[in-house]
């Protein structure tokens, strides 16, 4: 029973799914024009299937002038010619479906492009489009109010034909729709049905908590967006959308909702009741910034994990979390929260474990699975993002030094996430045969899919192992998250538990080794290490992995070889209590990585899902550690299965009875 005494969350495909976000312009260019396209996504479906993803969220593919790279839609029912045709899209739906992958579209309906036919009609006052947007007359010879837009400059633009200003929370090329008009809402519901009929499995809803506008007589010179979000009307309109379109359909819905608290999640995404399935939190993406995103604040692990844990515990039993560490608007997580130098691989794997092992639906942004990093283009001319370019221009106009601006851009520009996906060490990272629309990150020769695939210890194979693990262990999907040691300055640790017993995740999010004394109820409990980020993932977790080891009789030596002679973390071979046989020989005993766990005769042959199968018996039992403390290396990450609660610790010489 949950806090509220409500039933456990019901199972749903989208709660069990791994979602992969594709920014189509930057994913793969099949046509050779330098811009990624739908045929490019199609060409990489096998890759996505091998990674283990269940759903793909496509950033906008609709017809768009591209002022904000598709987040300014001029026709909701057409594919932008840069990306291909409707036939390409329909083929993509079919081919993805054949691989067990569902498509989720980006629904961008807080605003349209100013080149949308509705806006052309509206600016001329043509009925019924006259009030499709938010028009106001000027005040005292000036703007209707002093709000600024998210991308800089005022949130209002004057149109002489109407002698009025229209509201745009983003750029002037993105006029806000007037959701108070029922006809606008009906248009949105119709276009949603249009795509659902084409077989899409849900929507990510762009800035959806901004659709309900308050009175616009606010006197502050705030960023307008911040004055608008989470108005009760937004919630009401989403309820209406739910009734009109979403109800009864088995869809993934996730709202992009900047500025929300967990309490907002209880409403927008209340379990079994809310209009949406999930909302994206932003609080965990604000701990390293100051008053604006361009101003750095020191990244503090304690603060960060408190935010992460607070969301987890507050949502437990009330709303299903959406998990992400990066997307097309954010810097690369390994550069931001980890280390993109010496410890890049370890840090990217650690962040993968954090992303995939919390409770909720994980969203992996393209390139995260190979540990792609931020980019540091020397010149502003290499940048393409409207927000970045406006920030630079306004900064220069105010006389801010070039180096100061470029340092902020290197840290926070959205283009960090938008450089082309790095497929190979070949020309343009294998992204295009033409000239890419934005330069490739020069580190592609080292960081690319081809190299990662060939390296069993790569970030990519760690993702595959984690995904495979999550898929076979219900506790890692539905089990509650129990935070541990919230005040430890470096270690993020938590349990995931259900009736089958707890799992332990321990992550040292720092470049220095640390000792983590296990909290009392856990210390000394029998546990088996299932995965860590310093050794190859055991082939056991993912039979499709190219690591040339097959589990079976006489494979202990092979395992030892795979893990560099250090076999903790995988199954031992042989019956409980026996020394495992070497391949074709005898005596290849297990060893530990760090030597801190006291070891003893394995206690059972249960597999990671708690069930003892014939295969588990054949493979033998698991190596058991009873640690009191962990010595964790730089960015070391470990995942343990623990003995169920109530399993009493045996002292030396003490019998079971
Ligand atoms: C969302 C999108 C972002 C876009 C903005 C305006 O935040 O993720 O890319 O610029 O909305 O549509």
From TrEMBL:
<feature type="region of interest" description="Disordered">
    <location>
        <begin position="569"/>
        <end position="620"/>
    </location>
</feature>
<dbReference type="GO" id="GO:0004556">
    <property type="term" value="F:alpha-amylase activity"/>
</dbReference>
<keyword id="KW-0326">Glycosidase</keyword>
<dbReference type="Pfam" id="PF00128">
    <property type="entry name" value="Alpha-amylase"/>
</dbReference>
<dbReference type="InterPro" id="IPR045857">
    <property type="entry name" value="O16G_dom_2"/>
</dbReference>
<dbReference type="GO" id="GO:0009313">
    <property type="term" value="P:oligosaccharide catabolic process"/>
</dbReference>
<dbReference type="InterPro" id="IPR017853">
    <property type="entry name" value="GH"/>
</dbReference>
<protein>
    <submittedName>
        <fullName>Oligo-1,6-glucosidase</fullName>
    </submittedName>
</protein>
<keyword id="KW-0378">Hydrolase</keyword>
<feature type="domain" description="Glycosyl hydrolase family 13 catalytic">
    <location>
        <begin position="21"/>
        <end position="418"/>
    </location>
</feature>
<comment type="similarity">
    <text>Belongs to the glycosyl hydrolase 13 family.</text>
</comment>
<dbReference type="InterPro" id="IPR006047">
    <property type="entry name" value="GH13_cat_dom"/>
</dbReference>
């Amino acid at each position: 029973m949950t806090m509220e005494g409500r039933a456990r969350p019901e199972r749903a495909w989208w709660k069990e799914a791994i979602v992969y976000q594709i920014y189509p312009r930057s994913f793969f260019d099949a046509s050779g024009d330098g811009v990624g396209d739908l045929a490019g996504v199609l060409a990489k479906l096998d890759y996505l299937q091998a990674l283990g993803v269940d759903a793909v969220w496509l950033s906008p593919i609709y017809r768009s002038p591209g002022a904000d790279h598709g987040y300014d839609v001029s026709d909701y029912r057409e594919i932008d010619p840069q990306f291909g045709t409707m036939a390409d899209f329909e083929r993509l739906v079919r081919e993805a479906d054949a691989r067990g992958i569902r498509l989720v579209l980006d629904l961008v309906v807080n605003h349209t492009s100013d080149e949308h036919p509705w806006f052309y009609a509206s600016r001329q006052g043509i009925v019924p489009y006259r009030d499709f947007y938010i028009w106001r007359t000027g005040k005292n010879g000036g703007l209707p109010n002093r709000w600024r837009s998210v991308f800089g400059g005022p949130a209002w633009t004057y149109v002489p034909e109407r002698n009025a200003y229209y509201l745009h929370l983003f750029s002037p090329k993105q006029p806000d729709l007037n959701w108070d008009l029922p006809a606008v809402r009906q248009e949105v519901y119709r276009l949603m049905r249009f795509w659902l009929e084409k077989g899409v499995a849900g929507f990510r809803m762009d800035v959806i908590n901004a659709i309900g506008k308050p009175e616009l007589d606010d006197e502050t010179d705030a960023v307008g967006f911040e004055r608008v979000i989470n108005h009760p009307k937004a919630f009401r309109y989403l309820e209406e959308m739910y009734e009109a379109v979403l109800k009864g359909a088995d869809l993934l819905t996730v709202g992009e909702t900047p500025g929300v608290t967990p309490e907002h999640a209880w409403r927008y995404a209340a379990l079994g009741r809310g209009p949406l399935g999930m909302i994206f939190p932003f609080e965990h993406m604000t701990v390293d910034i100051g008053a604006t995103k361009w101003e750095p604040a020191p990244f503090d692990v304690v603060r960060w994990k408190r935010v992460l844990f607070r969301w987890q515990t507050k949502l437990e039993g009330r709303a299903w979390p959406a998990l992400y560490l990066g997307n097309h608007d954010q810097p690369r997580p390994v550069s931001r929260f980890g280390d993109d130098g010496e410890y890049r691989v370890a840090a990217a794997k650690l962040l993968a474990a954090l992303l995939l092992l919390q409770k909720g639906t994980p969203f992996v942004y393209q390139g995260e699975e190979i540990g792609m990093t931020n980019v540091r283009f020397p010149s502003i001319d290499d940048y393409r993002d409207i927000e970045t370019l406006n920030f630079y221009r306004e900064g220069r106009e105010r006389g801010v030094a070039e180096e100061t601006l470029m340092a902020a851009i290197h840290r926070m520009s959205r283009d960090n996430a938008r450089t082309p996906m790095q497929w190979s060490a070949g020309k343009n990272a294998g992204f295009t045969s033409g000239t890419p629309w934005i330069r490739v990150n020069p580190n592609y020769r080292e960081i690319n899919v081809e190299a990662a695939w060939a390296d069993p210890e790569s970030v990519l194979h760690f993702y595959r192992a984690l995904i495979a693990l999550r898929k076979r262990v219900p506790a890692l999907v539905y089990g509650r998250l129990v935070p541990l040691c919230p005040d430890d300055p470096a270690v993020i640790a938590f349990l995931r538990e259900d009736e089958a017993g707890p799992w332990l995740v321990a992550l040292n999010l720092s470049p220095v080794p640390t000792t983590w004394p296990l909290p009392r109820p856990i210390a000394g409990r029998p546990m088996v290490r299932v995965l860590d980020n310093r050794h190859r993932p055991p082939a056991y977790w993912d039979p499709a992995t190219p690591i040339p080891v097959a589990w079976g009789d006489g494979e202990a030596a092979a395992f030892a070889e795979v893990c560099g002679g250090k076999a903790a973390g995988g199954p031992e071979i042989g019956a409980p209590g026996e020394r495992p046989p070497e391949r074709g020989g005898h005596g290849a005993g297990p060893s530990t990585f760090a030597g801190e766990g006291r070891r003893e005769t394995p206690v059972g042959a249960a597999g990671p899902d708690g069930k003892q199968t014939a295969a588990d018996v054949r493979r033998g039992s698991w190596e058991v550690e009873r640690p009191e403390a962990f010595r964790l290396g730089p960015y070391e990450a470990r995942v343990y299965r623990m003995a169920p609660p109530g399993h009493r610790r045996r002292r030396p010489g003490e019998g079971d009875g």
